[in-house]
Amino acid sequence: xxxxxxxxxxxxxxxxxxxxxxxxxxxxxxxxxxxxxAKRLGIGMASTSSILPTVAEELLKRVKRVYQELSQLxxxxxxxxxxxxxxAALNALELVxxxxxxxxxxxxxxxxxxVEGSSGQVYHCLSSCLYCSCPAFMYSVLRRNxxxxxxxxxxxxxxQAMGAYHQLAVSDKQLTSLLLAKDKEAGVTAY
Length: 191
Prior knowledge:
alpha+beta, 5-stranded mixed sheet, 4-stranded antiparallel sheet, 9 strands, 46% helix, globular
């Protein structure tokens, strides 16, 4: 259950339904459609397959603006996140809440994000090229094309929008070693 809105004790439950999301809270239950969410966010709808990345990008911009103004996410934004990103949204928000995201950067300007998953495993994410080292990204995003992001990359984007990540400065050599060590764990040999 996520807490959101003007009062800290207020809770909001989200349930995915065909064609939309149903939210329930203290003011009752209401349904919202994809088209309705896009309209509320001020995003025009074309075809769903071509617009989804645009909707996601606009939604993350909106998250940043609202979070800067209110220091929290509104019910409307939580619904829209659940809508656009599905179950990954709730999992990503949990990672953000647990402060599981670290920006690792080197003097040369290279950087990556480390996200500690719910299992305790640390995954490497490159937000600039939409990559995560987790198995869900390999299977659901790349192979099956079921999702546009995994929960780790979404957590990175949410942390960027909300400024809620740790920072770790390392040398270029340390960053390279970090990436190569991860490749060796996965059975990949770097040349």
